[in-house]
Amino acid sequence: MQVTETLNSGLKREIKVTVPAQDLESRLMERLEDAKSKVRLKGFRPGKVPLQHLRNIYGKSFMAEVVNEILSDSSKSIISERGEKPAMQPEINMTEDEKEAEKVLAGNADFEFSMSYEVIPPIEIKDFSEIKVTRPVYDVSDDEVEEQVKRIADSARTYKPKSGKAKEGDKVTIDYAGKIDGELFEGGSAEDSDVVIGHNQFIPGFEEQLVGLKAGDKTTIKVTFPEEYAAEHLAGKEAEFDVTVKQVSEADELVVDDELAKTLGLESAEKLREIVRGQLENQFGQVTRQKAKRQLLDALDDLYKFDAPSKLVEAEFENIWNQVTRDLESAGRTFEDEDTTEEEARAEYQRLAERRVRLGLVLAQIGEEAGVEVGEDEMQRALIESIRRYPQHQQQEIYDFYRQNPQALANIRAPLFEEKVVDHLLAKADVTDKKVGREELLADDEDEAEAKPAAEKKPAKKKAAPKKKAAKAEGDAE
User: What are the start and end residues of every segment in region (Disordered) (predicted)?
Assistant: First the structure.
């Protein structure tokens, strides 16, 4: 087999491979010899079929198997011998001329093909001890725990009917029918629906208009769906709801005691408070970690500047762009509505795709050198957690799909691996904890940037709103 490099430019490589006809013939004869003792043909005793007769029958199909085997094995071995890491599966090119192909399959011509691929650039791991991360930490207060406990107690309260008008905290049982532009819309109607005034479970402005109503009253409530409403076809729309009040009920006294805890399956009110505190600390801890991770990835982005493989960037860009355009289409909006243009949006998401790919390669190299591994038990837990999002009757089918598809499993593994590499890096970086208030911890990065002195701000950029959906954690390398 002759191997010739025909292109070596930047990260791009192209290799020409020639397999002489005599090598093909040798491999074919090995297959025919092996088949001779196994094949059963009418008119011949086992093992006595002439090779030429076998060749006449199976020659082309066996040679096709030889060719496919060469393509599969040689691409891996050639790249391995060159000490390169391909960014994606090499693209194989061979003759499309039927006559040429027939000669190869007949063993009368050399087999020639070329491999095109991009390599992952060498990444030199640097000293991470100089990376500085300020980790915002929020201490959950007793008042906050008590407030959440009261919310839980409120949700467990019982109600009894009353004859007066509805007020804040009362439960109102209603029938309603929602219309947009005079037409009923899907999901906008219900009967015997319970609304607790002040729980903010309905569209903003809806519950407040129930105050002062009593059983038997009919009214029309006018509201506007939020711009970020989950059902995008309703977002920002004005609606009217024809409402009939069936019953008004008032809540029993709000009491947080051991009896309440027992109705929730706990032994005491203190145990309830302990669990609530743990849940709050875990929620705020996740925000703390994400902000620390973002700083870490920003630091890596500054440390590592290299050209990322264009095919990987192209694939990542397509993923992002498809999500963005789907979001816009679902919302019935355009790039102009988002104060940008398609050209500007493409440029911005192209930069985001390049960053993600580059950081992904950096984290992969760091993890490899650090010996970071994702255990089978971790994979199993993550897989089970993933399939729980599907209806129960589909879960076994989804589970089997993942177990039978390495690429699908790789998508489960990737975020686990990334988080473990982040843990490894945070252990090596210079991390300083900073006590912050709740609002500061929960502030978006853009809000934090606005709060910085003008000298510290970066130049403002137009941003398409869907970015928060498609790429909210811009620094993530997943």
Answer: 436-478
Cβ-based burial of 467 (10 A; exposed 0-12, middle 13-18, buried ≥19): buried
Q: Which of 148, 208, 220 is nearest to 172 (CA)?
A: 208
What is the average per-residue pLDDT within 202-208? 92
SS3 132: strand
CB of 28 closer than 8 Å to CB of 63: yes
Tell me, what's the pLDDT at 468?
38
**41 torsion bin: left (phi>0), alpha (psi -120 to 50), beta (else):** beta
Domain with CATH 3.10.50.40 in the chain: 158-253
Predicted local distance difference test score (pLDDT) of residue 455: 30
Are 320 and 349 in contact by the 8 Å Cβ rule? The answer is yes
Q: Which architecture does CATH list for 269-470? A: Orthogonal Bundle (1.10)
- The first and second tokens of residue 211, run together, are 């105050």
Percent of the chain's residues with pLDDT above 90: 58
Residue 346, burial from CB neighbour count under 10 angstroms (0-12, 13-18, 19+):
middle
Strand extents, DSSP E, 12-153: 12-19, 91-94, 111-118, 132-137
Q: Extract the tokens encoding 190.
A: 């219900």
In this predicted structure, the answer to whether residue 461 has a pLDDT above a threshold of 80 is no
Q: Is the pLDDT of residue 459 over 70?
A: no
CATH 3.30.70.1050-classified regions of the chain: 2-118
Question: Cβ distance 445 to 297 under 8 Å?
Answer: no
- Its pTM stands at 0.72
User: H or E segment at 220?
Assistant: strand 218-224
Question: In the CATH scheme, what is the code of domain 2-118?
Answer: 3.30.70.1050
User: Would you call 340 exposed, middle or buried from its count of C-beta atoms within 10 A (0-12, 13-18, 19+)?
Assistant: buried
As a whole number, mean pLDDT of residues 40-45 equals 72
Q: Please state the three-class secondary structure of 51-87 as a single string.
A: HHHHHHHHHHHHHHHHHHHHHHHHHHHHHHHCCCCEC
Residue 368's pLDDT band (boundaries 50, 70, 90)? very high
Question: pLDDT tens across 71-80, in order?
Answer: 888 888 999 9
> pLDDT tens, 430-445?
999 999 999 999 987 5
The yes or no reply on domain 158-253 and CATH 2.40.37.10 is no
What phi and psi values does residue 426 have, to the nearest 5 degrees? Answer: -65, -30
The set of long-range contacts for 70-79, using a CB threshold of 8 Å and a minimum separation of 24, is 70/1, 70/19, 70/27, 70/111, 71/113, 74/1, 74/17, 74/19, 75/115, 78/3, 78/15, 78/17, 78/115, 79/115, 79/117
